[in-house]
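One thing: could you explain this record?
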Amino acid sequence: MSANDDLKQSASETMTKHEMIIHYIQKLPIGTRISVRAIAKELQVSEGTAYKAFKDAETAGLVSTKERIGTVRIDRKRREAMDQLTFREVAEIVDGRLHGGLAGIEKTLQKFVIGAMELDAMLRYIGESSLLIVGNRKNVHRKALEHGAGILLTGGFEPEREVIELSNELKLPVLSTRHDTFTVASMINRAMYDRLIRRKIILLEDIVTFTKPADVMYVGQTVAEYHALFRETGSARFPVLDERGRVVGMMTAKDAAGAEDSVSVDKVMSKHPITAAPNITVTSAVHTMALEGIDLLPIVDRHRKLMAVVTRQEVLDAMRFAGKQPESGETFEELIWTGFVLHSEVVPDDASMVYSGKITPQMSGALGMASEGLLSTLMGQAARNMIRETSKRDFLLDNVNTYFLHPIPIESEITIMAKPLELSRMVTKIEISIHDNKGLAAKAILAAQMIDPY
């Protein structure tokens, strides 16, 4: 019996076919090219079953499927390397074709170099973890690989056979694209810049430990066992799982109150509990937990199988950490707010904060006036800055009612006044108004949930 036969036999005894495929994929070396048909044949399962398992493996970060590259076994990317693009991602960005070096497709690149200089000068800039963007300069391709750099050929050119063979030997990707060099450099630079911004967005999977077992209960356990687990852990809220590990309920002190010790927890538990996927943002989790008044959120996969749990304190700590990090790139909102300054010395009696700035040509809409979306964004930014300045807190927007009284021409100097109508630990209501030289131009009433201070 072969090793694969042993794997299939031992796995089938304890796993479903779906789980057996996932386990098989996990054992494959990073960089292995795989297909639904081949694995279905290897493990003697239907292609439909293999396809569903492939989709789950892709969601879990075990494989990646890209046009012109195929499905490849990958390593789940570390959060600290999130700002680094892989060669696979570059291929996707530029609609590229992979010619060789598949084993290195998941390597990250630190920089890219445009091959528009003499060879000797170029070689001083390239090295390991770099990408050379170059046209049909055949004398450069081999030298770049020998210096540890991947290659991206622009203008629709393709590499020679000896270059492809060398790339496979050195495990360095060689890509090609129909785009010109300037377009390709702009596309990659934009992607790297966006990645810097995205690094500040924390997901639930970034703050939980999936290998740490959660305290749970199972269908069939009793209220007496709930009380014992309560005393042992000090926690009063536990996910209830069925025999397949799926979250089917939540057991709390309120559910156990008044119930006989011998009663099964599935008879008194809260059914259809709120759960979350691992790839949702921490901000979204905070909003859900605050809105529903819960302190523990189960994290589940697409089949509702428990992966981990996260507490409200953990997500609030993560948001505080994110708020203390230096800015990495600028979002559109931050770019729009650039140039607006606080004028605390001119704050009238009926406003908490006054900001002033100028409507630039880039802020205009279709009619040559300040766009309504732009004005709404400015009012939202003013409200957020006021909360941050006065209470060192932030908020999650519930709703906003906006009114536009007259159009504001470009080049106009405006002031934005933000006044708190209600400000408590849980909620806030803020009145924001925009004034130009003609008087009141726009007004909004914003209602939001407050979140803990940074």
Q: What stands out?
A: Residues 6-14, 78-82, 324-329 have pLDDT under 50 and may be disordered. The first helix runs from residue 3 to 14.
